[in-house]
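Need residues for this backbone.
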């Protein structure tokens, strides 16, 4: 006979083993920011080198968006807010503020991705234009192999 206590313990164990839901921090393309601005934002906020930042700027420009990192919701919200509030691009007169950066639940398919590939765990992964964190303060563009 299964008791209420057994059911509660089973649910609690399942919650602990699945961990928090991973969230993507997604940078959205626009016409109000230069490559130089995007590179500077990524270098300053994520401590990426210029080559990594440039590759992400290219991805955003070509695909309209790029996943910067995948992490737990609170850190994803912080990272998106940092990008959103970085300030205007001084090289473009029409620039009114920071770039648009949003968060969305991460979806991992049958291609071997899993929720352990995130900024908080220091893992890296690559797939079709997405980027993931490779340290607590950085990330690896999808076109660059993990260091």
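Answer:
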């Amino acid at each position: 006979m299964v008791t209420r206590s057994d059911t509660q313990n089973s649910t609690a164990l399942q919650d602990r083993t699945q961990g928090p839901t991973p969230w993507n921090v997604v940078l959205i393309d626009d016409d109000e920011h230069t490559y130089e601005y995007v590179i500077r934002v990524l270098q300053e906020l994520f401590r990426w080198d210029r080559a990594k930042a440039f590759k992400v700027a290219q991805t955003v420009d070509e695909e309209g968006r790029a996943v910067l990192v995948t992490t737990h919701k609170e850190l994803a919200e912080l990272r998106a807010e940092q990008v959103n509030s970085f300030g205007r691009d001084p090289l473009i007169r029409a620039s009114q503020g920071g770039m648009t950066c949003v968060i969305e639940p991460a979806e991992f398919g049958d291609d071997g991705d899993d929720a352990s590939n995130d900024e908080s765990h220091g893992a890296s992964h690559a797939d079709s234009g997405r980027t993931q964190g490779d340290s607590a303060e950085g990330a690896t563009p999808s076109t660059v192999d993990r260091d």
